[in-house]
């Protein structure tokens, strides 16, 4: 087994966060009274709306900005955001679905081996930081991809990046480095 051989790693996307604008002012009180699956947080000035399919939670502000969390793919995030915009239209708002953007993707990947974290950190010093007193994982940042990886000694890696493509290439990039430090 060497680092160059093709190893199929399953990358499980656990959360996709996206943002869109409605291009109209939203009356939060009306959404809270007439909408379904709604929590009105008046002290913060936002409404939380939940969809069952796809399972998404949206944070809605009166300015018309909406943040959707909980999707498991970029396509599901867009579909859920469009469903949310449609439900706001049905409440009587002049919603125009614009400026949709995936802003964050969280994924988990398990390596087929355990990792020696102190050795990994020493070999990758400028990018990796390991503070075992504070957190059990190595924090590894890839600035070019804008991705952050949390690498645990069990071989589990949590990846945060701006999109699914960046997350996948971050895992591909880190594999040879963690392979060198395997137990």
TrEMBL record:
Cellular component, GO annotation: cytoplasm; nucleus
Signal peptide (from-to): none
Family: Belongs to the TBP family.
Domain of life (superkingdom): Eukaryota
CDD domains in the record: TLF
Chief location category: cytoplasm
Compartments where located: Cytoplasm; Nucleus
One Gene Ontology term of the molecular function aspect: DNA binding
InterPro entries tied to this protein: TBP (IPR000814), TBP-like (IPR015445), TBP_dom_sf (IPR012295)
Protein name in the entry: TATA box-binding protein-like 1
GO terms classed as biological process: DNA-templated transcription initiation
Native species: Aegotheles bennettii
Keywords: Cytoplasm, DNA-binding, Nucleus, Transcription, Transcription regulation
């Amino acid at each position: 087994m060497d680092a160059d051989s093709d190893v199929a790693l399953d990358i499980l996307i656990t959360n996709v966060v996206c943002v869109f604008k409605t291009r109209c002012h939203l009356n939060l009180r009306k959404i809270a009274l007439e909408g379904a699956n709604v929590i009105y947080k008046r002290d913060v000035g936002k409404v939380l709306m939940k969809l069952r399919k796809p399972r998404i939670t949206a944070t809605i502000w009166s300015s018309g900005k909406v943040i959707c969390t909980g999707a498991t793919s970029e396509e599901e995030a867009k579909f859920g955001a469009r469903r949310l915009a449609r439900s706001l239209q049905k409440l009587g708002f002049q919603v125009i679905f614009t400026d949709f953007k995936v802003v964050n993707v969280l994924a988990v990947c398990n390596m087929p081996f355990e990792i020696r974290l102190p050795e990994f950190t020493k070999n990758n010093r400028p990018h990796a930081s390991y503070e075992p007193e504070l957190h059990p994982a190595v924090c590894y940042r890839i600035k070019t991809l804008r991705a952050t990886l949390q690498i645990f000694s069990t071989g589990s890696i949590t990846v945060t990046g701006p999109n699914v493509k960046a997350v996948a290439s971050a895992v591909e990039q880190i594999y040879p480095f963690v392979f060198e430090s395997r137990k």
